[in-house]
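Weekly structure sync, notes
Attendees: PL, DS, HV (note-taker this week)

Item 1: Protein translocase subunit SecY
DS walked through the input record. Source organism listed as Chryseobacterium viscerum. Sequence as pasted into the shared doc:
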Amino acid sequence: MKEFIQTLKNIWSLKELRDKILFTLGIILVYRFASYISLPAINLAEVGDLLEHYKNQGGNKQGAGLLGLLSSFTGGAFSHASVMALGIMPYISASIIVQLMGMAIPYLQKLQKDGESGRNTLNQITRWLTIGVCLVQAPSYLTSITQLFLPYAQFQSAYFVEPNSIMFWLPSIVILVAGSVFAMWLGEKITDKGIGNGISILIMVGILSRLPEAFLQEMAVQNGKGGMGSIMILIEVLFWMVVVLLAVILSVAVRKIPIQYVSRAQARGGVNKNLMQGARQWIPLKVNAAGVMPIIFAQALMFVPGLLTKFDESNTFLAGFKNVFSWQYNVLFALLIIIFSFFYTAITIPVNQMADDLKRNGGLVPKVRPGKETADYLDDILSKITLPGAIFLSIFAILPAIVHGSFVQTDAFALFFGGTSLLIMVGVILDTVQQINTYLLNHHYDGLMQSKLSRTTGY
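Item 1 (cont.): predicted structure, written out as tokens:
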């Protein structure tokens, strides 16, 4: 505990790091404040009553898939008709599209290799594509909320403007696009002047903002059952901590591939020989190289089985796909995650390029020939570690359905026992802590250099 307190003092003593953290916190406050500003055409008071009515009708389970994920990422702004309803997700979608297109379009491949100028151009393309994604998602979002409100006659006062008029649609679309662009700008400002990856931090803050409410709901339900409620809450918290620990392990687990470099050195006899350097380096291949992307892709496709129920509403098997806690939904969900884990890892880890770079720089894997054999070796290792990583990730994704009902009583709190939300929180926190540690280490290094200089020069 003393070391932790001392670390906090060290962080606060560094003016640059302190300013970055305070700047990040200020941007987060602006983002959270904006998420509570409703669209001008929507009566915010009526929205809260309607959402409560919708949940009581069972809409929370049917909407807990990708829509629930979007609402979680935006801290509830998506489900509260906020000006930030689209949040940062259009930018994430645009980034994924650019990344995938970079595998097939030579121009984007060239930009990826052009260093800083290429990255700036790719960022500009991503920003413009974000606006295009917003122009598609904004009308879809407005359609969804109008369909949500209109069936209930008692909630017609939720609109200040006729929902089918141009005066409702045009300003609302412009505001939603502006809100998403503003969120993107806030995220980039955190990355430039704050600490951590700004886009990821905004997503994490949106997720964390829903945790206290979910926990309080779980406490209310458990305490309503009698004297065992407090004990069950304690057991749930301890189990949740174990799940967080497993998420950390999944995020940081790597397979280290030893690398040795060949250098030309002149022996004492005057003959040049290829000598192996004594120091070894490593290629860290992550067990879960795809991160949370397989879960996001799988959730996007899980809408398809639910749509099939419209053709045969009497089919109980298909009806199960509309509930994210059903066994039908989660079996297919887990299989899709495993498939996408291999797919996304294959397109994002360039083993051929890694082998070529090693060969060009004089590096090699012990007992493996440079070139194609090295690429095949890395691909084989990557395939072997991706399978357990994909299985672990799929179990993690369906864990909320496993604990729901039998262990955790409320839907909202169960969703924090795994899945995309928890993995994103863990990943972002680990990345931010790593950046803070880097600042601390650099400061310690600079301090030693300054002390040596002062002893030598007398200044």
